[in-house]
Inverse folding.
């Protein structure tokens, strides 16, 4: 019946609800600017150009006054959880900045709450004035080298593949399982492809025959290229390239000038954030990326295409979103300056500047931290030698990858000690799902803390509690405060100094992005005074436990050599 109504709306038999007059339309189909009016009926675009015959007595007329109208922007890959706010609060900010669609992989929630968490997010999404498309998390946990709160296997994946807004299988991070022909992993991929859904990839540093094998599995995209040459090889082999510009990992400055220099077609490239800090989200979302791309030399229409139609085509949703076209959803952004990409208004399914309503959540999402009280000596690596050789995780600022080194450290005759002068701090990961009681221990360089400790229950992907400190007593204080809060970020120096409460699954606040950002700024100020020089220390910290991004990481099971995909001893000669 709805299809008949759309046809009648196009013929003018059913009159338009709204007509946008005097538009300069950014046509991403033909890469040109056209002039005309836009008729909207029941949230869809019924007519473009001369739409006089579609108007009725009750049609609302909005004069756009020769401003530009472009498609609503789409974030092609985001874990909204990294904003540390709920999906509702994330949408509240995104829509202000022209994002009318996001493609989420909710594997942060999934690693804690499993399929129940995914369904909760999908139910929440239905209430929002933003199109939420879902790729079902393929790696829960991301690796057998960590303990997660849940496991999602082939049977669980199949439960979701026929859901309305599921568009694919989420990034396949455990690439070693693919290359080894793991039956269940290949079953997930085959099930998605059978439903004509996309399979998103995650393969940093992969090349040659390993990359050939990975692509032969049917995986079609990647957002993890470390170098330009790596990214270009993947594009040439047929992968869709997600150009990532998030809060922790950024690629535009490095990749775009070289793509333009080499004359590479951008039709198979689109923009994603992957992870977006709440403070950055307040400043902007996909609009920030479009503006950055334009400043780096991409034509404005092409930049807009890379945030709209290119994304929609990859996920095979271009029949409903991604362009200002007849029959598509009236998800539109009105801008007054194409070069500056300055947003004036946003329309979602025909509604001007839609509002986001609050939602209540079930009690179980607020009870997820389950370890016993942590003692400081439980965080130590024991050794009776005077000096030992330690494997050190080396931070790479603004990157998710880490380097590694071997450094000689002192002991006190019982435990290996941090070395503040060399910027080598203790790091530990405490299993928090109540399953094993594991504690992984090691050392990290790059935080520059001169005193105290920091801890958080946001640690990709299994979200066990991660602690970094100059001493073990303060690290234990952080761990125990996090347990009391049932989730959060804590800073301690002989006592708990301050914290951000993250009670939803131990990783999200139910407050606004503004409230979270305000508290984060306070925490950033505190850790800066403690010596930390990193721009986004808490996000950087959260990726140190992700055992699928090279080269050295740490989980509750211990130190992980990601390149060899195995656990290794943090101390060589204890």
């Amino acid at each position: 019946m709805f299809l008949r109504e759309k046809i009648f709306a196009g013929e003018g038999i059913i009159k338009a609800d709204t007509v946008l007059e005097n538009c300069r339309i950014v046509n991403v189909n033909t890469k040109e600017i056209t002039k005309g009016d836009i008729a909207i009926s029941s949230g869809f675009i019924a007519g473009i150009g001369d739409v006089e015959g579609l108007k009725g007595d009750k049609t609302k007329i909005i004069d756009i006054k020769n401003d530009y109208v472009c498609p609503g922007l789409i974030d092609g890959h985001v874990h909204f959880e990294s904003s540390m706010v709920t999906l509702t609060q994330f949408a509240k900010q995104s829509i202000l900045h022209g994002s009318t669609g996001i493609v989420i992989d909710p594997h942060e929630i999934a690693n804690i709450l499993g399929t129940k968490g995914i369904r909760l997010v999908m139910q929440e999404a239905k209430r929002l004035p933003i199109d939420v498309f879902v790729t079902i998390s393929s790696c829960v946990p991301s690796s057998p080298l960590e303990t997660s709160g849940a496991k999602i296997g082939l049977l669980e994946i199949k439960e979701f593949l026929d859901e309305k807004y599921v568009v694919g299988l989420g990034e396949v991070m455990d690439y070693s399982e693919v290359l080894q022909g793991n039956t269940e992993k290949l079953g997930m991929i085959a099930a998605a492809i059978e439903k004509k859904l996309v399979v998103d990839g995650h393969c940093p540093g992969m090349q040659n025959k390993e990359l050939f094998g990975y692509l032969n599995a049917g995986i079609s995209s990647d957002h993890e290229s470390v170098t330009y040459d790596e990214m270009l090889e993947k594009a040439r082999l047929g992968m869709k390239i997600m150009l990532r510009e998030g809060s922790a990992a950024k690629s535009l400055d490095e990749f775009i000038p070289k793509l333009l220099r080499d004359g590479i077609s951008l039709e198979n490239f689109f923009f994603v954030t992957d992870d977006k800090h709440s403070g950055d989200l307040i400043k902007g979302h996909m609009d920030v990326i479009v503006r950055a791309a334009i400043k780096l030399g991409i034509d404005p229409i092409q930049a807009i295409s890379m945030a709209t139609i290119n994304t929609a085509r990859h996920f095979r949703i271009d029949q409903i979103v991604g362009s200002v076209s007849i029959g598509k959803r009236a998800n539109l952004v009105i801008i007054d300056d194409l070069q500056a990409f300055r947003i004036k208004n946003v329309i979602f399914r025909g509604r001007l500047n839609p509002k986001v309503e609050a939602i209540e959540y079930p009690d179980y999402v607020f009870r997820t931290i389950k370890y016993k009280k942590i003692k400081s000596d439980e965080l130590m690596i024991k050794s009776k030698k005077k000096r030992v050789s330690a494997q050190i995780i080396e931070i790479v600022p603004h990157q998710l990858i880490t380097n590694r080194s071997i450094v000689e450290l002192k002991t006190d005759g019982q435990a290996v000690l941090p070395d503040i002068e060399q910027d080598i701090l203790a790091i530990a990961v405490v299993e928090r799902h109540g399953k094993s009681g594991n504690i992984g221990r090691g050392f990290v360089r790059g935080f520059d803390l001169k005193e105290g400790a920091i801890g958080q229950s946001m640690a990709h992907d299994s979200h066990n509690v991660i602690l970094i400190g100059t001493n073990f007593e303060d690290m234990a204080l952080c761990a125990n405060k996090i347990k009391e809060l049932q989730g959060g970020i804590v800073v301690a120096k002989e006592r708990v100094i301050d914290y951000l409460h993250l009670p939803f699954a131990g990783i999200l606040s139910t407050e606004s992005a503004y409230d979270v950002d305000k508290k984060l700024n306070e925490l950033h100020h505190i850790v800066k005074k403690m010596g930390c020089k990193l721009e986004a220390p808490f996000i950087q910290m959260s990726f140190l436990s992700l055992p699928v991004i090279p080269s050295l990481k740490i989980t509750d099971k211990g130190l992980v050599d990601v390149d060899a995909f195995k656990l290794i001893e943090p101390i060589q000669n204890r």
Remarks:
- Residues 260 and 298 are 8 Å apart (CA to CA).
- The mean pLDDT is 96.
